[in-house]
Amino acid sequence: MARVVVDVMLKPEILDPQGKAVQGALPRLGFDGVSAVRQGKRFELEIDGELTSTRLAQVHEIAEKLLSNPVIEDFEVHVAEVEG
């Protein structure tokens, strides 16, 4: 079994109101020195069997077609170590 992580973030040119809200709240909570915040999503997929290049390509397709909106979001896929 393998664990594959898909991180989805808004493209840099897309406004991120949730990130701006967090950035604005930080100084009020006593946290200084954070110049920018971007909000995103993380998906962890557990893959049965061996993680082949074909299976990894399928995860990329899943990320593009289901987990992200390619018009406004970018995604990264990476293999994570399975704990335990």
Q: Note the run of SSEs as H and E.
A: EHEHE
How many β-strand runs? 3
Q: State mean pLDDT (0 to 100 scale).
A: 95
Give the percentage of residues in beta strands: 25-35%
How many H/I helices?
A: 2
CATH evolutionary superfamily of the domain at 2-14 and 40-80: Phosphoribosylformylglycinamidine synthase subunit PurS
Structural class: alpha+beta
The largest β sheet comes out as: 3 strands, antiparallel
Q: Helix proportion of residues, in percent? A: 25-40%
InterPro entries: PurS, PurS-like_sf
Subunit structure: Part of the FGAM synthase complex composed of 1 PurL, 1 PurQ and 2 PurS subunits.
Pathway: Purine metabolism; IMP biosynthesis via de novo pathway; 5-amino-1-(5-phospho-D-ribosyl)imidazole from N(2)-formyl-N(1)-(5-phospho-D-ribosyl)glycinamide: step 1/2
Catalytic activity: N(2)-formyl-N(1)-(5-phospho-beta-D-ribosyl)glycinamide + L-glutamine + ATP + H2O = 2-formamido-N(1)-(5-O-phospho-beta-D-ribosyl)acetamidine + L-glutamate + ADP + phosphate + H(+)
What features would you describe in this structure?
Helix content is 32%, strand content 30%. By secondary structure, it is of the alpha+beta class. It has a domain at 2-14 and 40-80: Mth169, Chain: A, CATH 3.30.1280.
